[in-house]
Amino acid sequence: MLSLPTTTPVLKVMPMPADANVHGDVFGGWIMAQVDIAGSIPAVKRAGGRVATIAVNSFLFKQPVFVGDLLSFYASITKIGNTSLTVTVEVYAERQRLDGEVVKVTEATLTYVATDESRRPRLVPPIATQPA
């Protein structure tokens, strides 16, 4: 049986009936929006401010998501460029109607660009180094 990752999720949400079709299957577009929000969280923290989504590099729906599933979004930065950050997001569902079964439902890779107040690309600040 699959279990949730040991790291802390950046976002947890439970889809509601308004997020689904008449059969209770959550819309893919709703999931994509949540993935974008989750991916932006580490990007904003690392960039030290505003970011904009510039690419959805990959997006895979592995399992359906149902109304009432508790979704956990895990995001990590996989690449840092001069102005851009690439983030991988994995989404797990805890099935409420199946005794809490955990399934990986989505995985995606998105690219964000750090922007200034004029919404123009800016450099991602370097990581501060600790004195030796």
From TrEMBL:
Pfam families: 4HBT (PF03061). This is Acyl-CoA thioesterase. The lineage of its organism: Bacteria, Pseudomonadati, Pseudomonadota, Betaproteobacteria, Burkholderiales. Keywords: Hydrolase. Residues 5-118 form the HotDog ACOT-type domain. The keyword Hydrolase applies. The keyword Cytoplasm does not apply. Belongs to the acyl coenzyme A hydrolase family. GO terms for cellular component: cytosol. PANTHER family: ACYL COENZYME A THIOESTER HYDROLASE, ACYL-COA THIOESTER HYDROLASE YCIA. One of its GO terms (biological process) is acyl-CoA metabolic process. GO terms for molecular function: long-chain fatty acyl-CoA hydrolase activity. Transmembrane segments: none annotated.
